[in-house]
Amino acid sequence: VSVNQIRRIMRKHIGSRVKVKANRGRHKIDVTEGVIIQTYPSIFLIQVDNAEEQSVQHISFSYTDVITKDVCLSLCD
Questions:
Q1: What is the pLDDT of residue 54?
Q2: pTM tops 0.90
């Protein structure tokens, strides 16, 4: 899998709801749901609605995070 393939897949799924598992190191794994809102040459953005704080957060990930499996994405139904 190459960066270009990941970029194409992300671009195709802009607006889709995804479940994100991000490995933050030291046995910390964040799991959240959000919407892919934008892709750029090196990164993509996911918008996460935080109901507790009534705020919207944008999280960026690089395509290499997906290749190295530091970030795993799955489409929500």
A1: 79
A2: no
